[in-house]
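Notes from the 1:1 (GR / supervisor)

We went over the backlog. Supervisor wanted to see one worked example end to end before approving the batch request, so GR pasted a single chain during the call. The sequence is below; no edits were made to it. Supervisor asked that the structure be written out right there so they could see what the output format looks like.
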Amino acid sequence: MSQLLSRLAGGELAGFILVLARVTPLFLLAPLFSSAMIPPRVRTVIAVGISIGLTPIALRGQHIPTDALALTELVLEGLLVGLGFSLALAVLLAAIESAGAFVDVISGFSYGSLINPLNNNNSAVMARFYSLVGTLIFLVIGGDGWTLRGLGRTFALVPLTSAPRLGSLVGGAEHVFSGVFTAAVEVAAPVLVALLITDVAFGVVSRVVPQLNVFAVGFPAKIAVALLVVGASLPFLANWINGQITVSVGEALGALHVA
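Structure output shown during the call:
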């Protein structure tokens, strides 16, 4: 018992704190892990459990200082690494939700908005639908496993006692943010094209038959077209997310370099 306490009071406890600092941003930004549907206490317990499992891997070949000032500096650096890794995954779900927002604006669903249960933000119907479906697909294809394996890989790229290269992290974050709009358009492209064709068709009809009330007929027709195309494109969304997870994890790890 005394030997266990002495170990906990030494490098093992300090190493656990550093690992926990790197794991914590995962439960603030990453898809599924940061969901508001999971109570904060449950997220805390899961974060501690993951940190306990990763600590032996992270401590391999490392000598952790027990000085308070040095430990505080390493905790901040661990938070920075965790934020950079989690941000790349958070952008994935943000792009999917943005695609739903595009569909809401063009189809007319944006007139009614409710609280999204995943993030407690106010959003319209399709934005919430895409967010829920994206999170479900993320879970079904094993995105949580990809995330944890990628997080474990960060300890080999940037050890606990090393600092990340700030310029590389900033460049990686800039690259990730620049691709949000493109990814959102890729996800929503089938619906956007179908709704554009529908608008053009009703524009031609209004010229040919001026007495037809286009607004009364066009609004429900656009909703029907949007629902049909969204349902038909969901299998392609699953394939897109599956490939994008690999890309996002790879880009997040590629941005991590030791200073």
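Supervisor's comment: Residues 238 and 252 are 21 Å apart (CA to CA).
Batch request approved.
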